[in-house]
């Protein structure tokens, strides 16, 4: 199958070639040390997917500064002292013929669990507006702070390059810092970083320029962008935010500035009804969400909606009201296609992919050049091997239940859909814990 299947054609970027069109998108959990240093569990986690056969891994959200973590216990890239760890991660992934791209990010106002280092500090953002889902606060950055933040992204890129990683991805989607500048629904600044689209994109363009000056033209850089904000998907009374036409223009500018690929997502916050698409896991949220109660002014309201069954229909109706009839698998392909038609660099699309037929069709139609997957690979890390053997899907596919999405607030990364384990909780738990206690296979080999 591999010799004739478009899924297994090499994907060629300007300065990087990966072995197939299957990539793993960012998925993170609390598996590193509290001080931001990395652990063997992180190496085991990334190696699991490389061993499963994907061509490229986009790392979990890597904070460029410890103050920009979404949640604690996530490894940072904030100093040169982190370079040896990321070198170990890259080397472990490379042993399986897989490329490793560091997703550089700053939480901005979307700081689910601030951690000790952020206690009493309002996170930097484009504006003072609170997030409308959790009530997470933000503080409009000064121009000096913007200049400092641009430098942090450039320094993070240099460290990724020195660690021998294959490139970086700028996280410009899902409500994090870059999104807060891009989004017309969030950015209410009145200076040169707010107002029209060109001004709102200024921060991103300055980051791209600074990265290129720091690492040169030969180091791979891609941009993850929310193609459509749909900022009012849940809160219908809010502004909708950036349109597809806005994002198409931003992608044109990003390509001209030196970006080598576009990674298409959707939404101005995370989670979002379109990202990750599927039902909202009420039972799991009732269990794991309480750790977020101190983080935002709307946390207690949300907890009541999740906790009490009589209230759940209210939140469920708001969550489900905009997705309509779009299938979960390939949900972002129309937006990906629109962007691919106007840029000359590869386009990667995320959105529930887990069947060879759907992926193959998207590639043949030229909706995208590759697909990215996260929760479907958590359910079946060996999906690429299944496709290579001629299979169309895993025996036990991802159900899109989204329990993994909320469990990471307080539990290990893993699939929490008990039905996939025939009701055997012990087996489910053992699989979720497996990568935490694995022997360091890569270390042993080296």
Description:
This protein has 17 helices and 13 strands. It has one domain: TIM Barrel, CATH 3.20.20. The relative contact order is 0.13. The model is unreliable at 439-446 (pLDDT under 50). It has helices at residues 40-52, 83-94, 143-162, 177-182, 197-200, 202-215, 244-257, 282-288, 299-307, 312-320, 333-340, 356-364, 375-379, 383-388, 403-407, 425-437, 441-445; strands at 11-12, 17-18, 22-24, 56-58, 62-63, 99-105, 124-125, 139-140, 167-172, 220-226, 261-265, 347-350, 370-373. The chain has 446 residues and is an alpha/beta fold. It has an 8-stranded parallel β-barrel, surrounded by 5 helices. The protein has a two-stranded antiparallel sheet with strand order 1-2. A two-stranded parallel ribbon has the order 7-8.
Could you outline the blueprint of secondary structure elements for this entry?
Layout: E1 11-12, E2 17-18, E3 22-24, H1 40-52, E4 56-58, E5 62-63, H2 83-94, E6 99-105, E7 124-125, E8 139-140, H3 143-162, E9 167-172, H4 177-182, H5 197-200, H6 202-215, E10 220-226, H7 244-257, E11 261-265, H8 282-288, H9 299-307, H10 312-320, H11 333-340, E12 347-350, H12 356-364, E13 370-373, H13 375-379, H14 383-388, H15 403-407, H16 425-437, H17 441-445
Parallel strand pairs: 3-4, 3-13, 4-6, 5-6, 6-9, 7-8, 9-10, 10-11, 11-12, 12-13
Antiparallel strand pairs: 1-2
Helix pairs in contact: 1-2, 3-6, 8-9, 9-10
Percent range of helical residues: 25-40%
Structural class: alpha/beta
Gross geometry: globular
Under CATH, the topology can be stated as TIM Barrel
Poorly predicted tracts of residues: 439-446
Number of DSSP helical runs:
17
- The order of strands across the largest sheet is 3-4-6-9-10-11-12-13
Strand proportion: 5-15%
How many E-type strands? Answer: 13
Task: Using the CA coordinates, give the radius of gyration.
Answer: 20 Å
């Amino acid at each position: 199958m591999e010799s004739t299947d478009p899924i297994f054609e090499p994907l060629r970027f300007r300065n990087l070639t990966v072995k197939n069109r299957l990539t793993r998108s960012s998925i993170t959990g609390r598996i590193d040390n509290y001080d931001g240093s990395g652990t063997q569990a992180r190496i085991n986690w990334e190696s699991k997917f490389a061993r499963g056969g994907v061509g490229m891994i986009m790392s979990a959200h890597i904070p460029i500064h410890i103050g920009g973590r979404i949640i604690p216990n996530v490894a940072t890239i904030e100093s040169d002292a982190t370079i040896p760890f990321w070198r170990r991660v890259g080397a472990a992934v490379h042993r399986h013929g897989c490329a490793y791209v560091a997703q550089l990010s700053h939480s901005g106002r979307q700081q689910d669990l601030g951690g000790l280092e952020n206690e009493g500090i309002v996170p930097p953002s484009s504006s003072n507006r609170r997030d409308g889902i959790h009530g997470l606060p933000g503080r409009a950055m000064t121009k000096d702070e913007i200049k400092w933040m641009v430098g942090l992204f450039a320094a993070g890129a240099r460290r990724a390059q020195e660690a021998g990683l294959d490139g970086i991805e700028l996280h410009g989607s899902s409500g994090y810092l870059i999104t807060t500048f891009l989004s017309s629904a969030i950015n209410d600044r009145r200076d040169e970083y707010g107002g029209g689209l060109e001004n709102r994109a200024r921060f991103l363009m300055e980051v791209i320029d600074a990265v290129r000056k720091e690492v040169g033209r030969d180091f791979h850089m891609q941009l993850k962008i929310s193609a459509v904000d749909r900022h009012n998907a849940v809160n219908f009374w809010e502004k909708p935010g950036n349109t597809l036409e806005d994002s198409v223009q931003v992608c044109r500018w990003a390509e001209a500035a030196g970006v080598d690929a576009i990674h298409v997502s959707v939404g101005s916050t995370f989670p979002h009804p379109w990202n990750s698409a599927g039902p909202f896991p009420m039972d799991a949220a009732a269990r794991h969400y309480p750790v977020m109660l101190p983080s935002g002014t709307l946390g207690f309201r949300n907890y009541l909606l999740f906790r009490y069954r009589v209230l759940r229909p209210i939140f469920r109706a708001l969550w489900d009201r905009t997705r309509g009839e779009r299938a979960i698998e390939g949900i972002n392909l129309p937006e990906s296609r629109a962007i691919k038609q106007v840029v000359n660099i590869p386009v990667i699309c995320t959105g529930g992919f887990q069947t060879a037929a759907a992926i193959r069709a998207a590639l043949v139609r030229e909706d995208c050049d590759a697909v990215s997957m996260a929760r479907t690979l958590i359910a079946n890390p060996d999906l690429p091997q299944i496709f290579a053997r001629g299979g169309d899907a895993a025996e036990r596919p991802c159900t899109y239940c989204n329990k993994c999405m909320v469990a990471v607030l307080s539990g290990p990364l893993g699939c929490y859909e008990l039905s996939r384990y025939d009701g055997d909780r012990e087996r489910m738990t053992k699989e979720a814990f497996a990568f935490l206690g694995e022997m360091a296979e890569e270390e042993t080999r080296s």
